[in-house]
Structures
1.
Amino acid sequence: DTRRPITSGSVACKVLVAGKTVPAKGRIAAGVGRCTFDVPASARGAAVRGTITVRSGGNAVSARFAFVAR
């Protein structure tokens, strides 16, 4: 991780809500990797966990995230 803006590459996202996979889309925007996904309204209070992987310039960096849906 160089902390420099990303200008090209790919982003992969894996997201679980209450242990079930939800569709997620990864993209590069404003020099960073981003994941977008919808948490179902019925999942209020459920754990949301995921991984984002950014590949650029022959390197890959992954990060995990987790939060409780409100």
2.
Amino acid sequence: DLASASGASALFSSALKVLGVGYLSGMCADVSRDLGEPTIARAVQVAGRVEIFTIIAPTVLLLLREVTALL
């Protein structure tokens, strides 16, 4: 299967995870702001961004290795 050989399914899975984490952390931050807790909202946003970075870091490293291999 071409998709599994190219890693496309892993990229799609990572993209779905990033969308889910981004959506949920944004929603939780909005609820916290609505409840009058801006500090908690900022903490939730930072935690969401860190989680997104940890999800995409392996993909970015793989992409950088492929680009350097072409050079």
